[in-house]
Amino acid sequence: MTGLDIDTRTDRQALGRGERLDRLDEARECIEQAVRLIREATRGTDEERRADAYVIPTLKMCAGNDHEYLGSQPYNVEELYEALSR
């Protein structure tokens, strides 16, 4: 279904700090890719306005604080990255 390589560790081995931060970078990139794909998929359709009004803003707010929308998510990938970087 997707071209993503997802690490599905079955053992309880914890990720190292660098691996965790890499995963969060990948997650942010996936969210940015999702925004691009949704825009492409809905461009010129009746659903474009809804995607632009609801789906895309939510995804951008989930990715980080650098967005043009007034709202925000209680916590986002950027904040997770910052917390795990300390």
Largest sheet: none
What is the average of the pLDDT values? 88
Q: Which secondary-structure class do the elements indicate?
A: mainly alpha
The number of helical segments is 3
Beta strand count:
0
Describe the model.
The structure is a single chain. The longest helix has 26 residues, at 17-42. α1 packs antiparallel against α2 (48-63). This protein has three helices and no strands. The chain has one domain. By secondary structure, it is an all-alpha fold. The relative contact order is 0.14. The protein is 59% helix and 0% strand.
Can you give keywords for this protein?
about 90 residues, mainly alpha, 3 helices, about 60% helix, about 0% strand
Question: What would you say about this model in short?
Answer:
Helix content is 59%, strand content 0%. It has 3 helices and no strands.
Secondary structure topology:
Blueprint (H helix, E strand, L loop, with lengths): L16 H26 L5 H16 L13 H9 L1
